[in-house]
Each structure stands twice: as structure tokens, then as C-alpha cells.
Specification:
Strand 14 and strand 15 form a beta hairpin. This protein is of the alpha/beta class. An 8-stranded parallel barrel has the order 2-3-4-5-6-7-8-9, surrounded by 4 helices. It is built from 11 helices and 18 strands. The protein binds pyridoxal-5'-phosphate.
Amino acid sequence: MRPARALIDLAALRHNYRLARELGGARALAVVKADAYGHGALRCAQALEGEADGFAVACIEEALELREAGIRAPILLLEGFFEADELEPIQRHDLWCVVHSPWQLEAIERTPLARSLTCWLKLDSGMHRVGFAPADYRAAHARLAASGKAAKIVAMSHFARADELDSPRVAEQLAQFAAATEGFDGEFSLRNSPALLGWPQLFRRGQEGEWLRPGIMLYGATPFEHYQAQAARLQPVMTLESKIISVRELPAGEPVGYGARFVSPRPTRVGVVAMGYADGYPRHAPDGTPLAVDGQPARLIGRVSMDMLTVDLTELPRAGLGSRVELWGAQVPASAVAAAAGTIAYQLFCNVRRVARVWHG
Ligand SMILES: Cc1ncc(COP(=O)(O)O)c(C=O)c1O
């Protein structure tokens, strides 16, 4: 059997969820969209059931996967509905629904519903992706309330730059939100992982009615480019691993892999690992990208192929056929691999496919 696999540590997931709640001092929806960032939405939701205050997903299809498997906790649709005919199953399955656009508001107004909805009304406080503009927010809120279709309206927004710990934009967005929602005394939600980990000074702990929305931190990856003390408390959830399936000794001056991107500068011992871009390992990872072989730090050399990649074993004489290779995990932070490859851990995790996923903890 091909040895490539992703181990998913559910105890670490629970640890990270508890940390989110502890740091934020509020209720938290675990963001499990995109198959829990590649970690398996159902398995992750089951591991957090009884503990998580609820879950957040991108669309009704993701929510129904959880509902049909028996997850009874609240589930928020982060983009609401894409077509008005989703409203009926949304209320039937008791899903919470973001309302981010005028067309959604109109659809709610004109669709007869047997039961009222829990709506999260989104403000565009500066990200300029979805949400009502500050000037339109109060009117949207009033219309939604007047429609009689919303049993509860939660005010929400999303930060664009909370991962930049010196950005003035977080406070600016927060001020926009405070102005747009002034006088509302209901529930509200702003904080994603970087806001939760990195901006405690802007939020009052235990503020009545707050909902946190942690995503990447649940999976144990830092959203920040540099060391950050709270993010250092996270435990990695996914370990992507495989084995060395071939070893060759090359003299100096020999190319390795497609395009001869790497040419051995000295006699080099090359290990071939059963892992490639078809498994989600980033093809753009450069020479020197960190990994670990039998627990020892090592580096990628040569271009990543579809099913294989190559590592430098010259300094690791005891490593060889069958040696375990960690592509990322406890020893090799996914964020370090992502940084080397010019991407983010979010994308690395989401891209993992084909390999067997093994849940434990
Ligand atoms: C609306 C919304 N809230 C929360 C999150 C979770 O963000 P993070 O993974 O950075 O914690 C996301 C993720 O993209 C999101 O789109």
C-alpha cells in the first residue's frame, strides 16, 4: 500500500477549540467549511460535539452532510443561500443563515416560511467582499426585522487584515462595526482566528452576546507570518507523512527530477518520497523547503512530481528505504512549508487529497 497518509489528531483539535474559547471568553462556532479545511468536516464535528457551541460552513450542502449524520448543534451558513429555494431546507433543518446582500433580503421578504430564521446580518466594515455597506446596514436590519421572518438577528462582520499585527485596519473595521450597530443590543460576531489570537486589546472578554468564529487555529496552524505567543500554544492537527521508497547516490553535477531544477553541488544522497502534487503537496515548493526524515530536519530538493518528491539525505546517513518522512505536522509547521511555497497553511490543508486520512484521539 502506498504509504502517504494524513493523520488527524482530534484531541489536538479539541485542545485548540478550548484555547479559542479561553482566549476569546465567548461562545465559538467551529469553522468546518471546506471539509474542515481538509481535515474531514464530519469527523471534526463529531469530535467537537457536546463541546462546540456550533459550527460554520460555506453552504447548505456542507451543512446537510453534518445534519444527515446526526449533528444537532447550530450550523451557520457563512454565505447564506445562493438561491432562494434553499430557504425552505434552511428552516427545515434549522440552519442559521448569513444575509450579506440585498437580493438575499428580498428573497427572504417574499418567500413564505413555516418557521422563522436565525439570521446573521453581515456588515461590510472594510473587506469589500460581501456584506451591506455601513450606510445601508441599519435599513437592512430594519427590513429584516420587519419581514417577520427572522426570529433573531446577529450582527456580524469579517476582518481583512487581522493577521497583520501592526495593521491599523483591524481597529478601523471595528470602529465601522461599532458605528453601524450602535444601539443594537443583540448578539454579534467578528473574530476569526487572527483576531482572536492577536488582538485581545480591542475586545472585552466575556462581552455579552459575542460569537467567535475560529477556523485555522482549530487546525493548529498559526495565521501569522512570525512567532506569536498565543499561536505558539496551538497543537497541530494534521500530520502529512509518507516514506522513502528509493535512494540513489549521485556524484556532483547531476540533475534531480523534472527540469533539472536541482543539480547536485557535491556527491549527494537522494531519497525519493511517495508524495507529490497530486496529493496536495505544493508543486511550487522550492529547494530547501523543510521536512523531517525519521525525526531529523531535512530539505526538499528538485521539482515536486505528481506522485513523488526528492529529499537530500546526504547529512542523514542512517535514513534510507522505509524511513518515515513528515511533510508537515508537529515537527515541521505547515505554515513554514506554506511560507516556503508562497502560499498559506489554509491552502495546503484544503489541497490534501488522494492520501488516506486517519483520525485518532
Ligand atoms: C466569514 C468567516 N468567518 C470566519 C472564518 C474563519 O477564519 P480563520 O480560519 O482565519 O479563523 C472565515 C474563513 O475564511 C470566514 O470566511
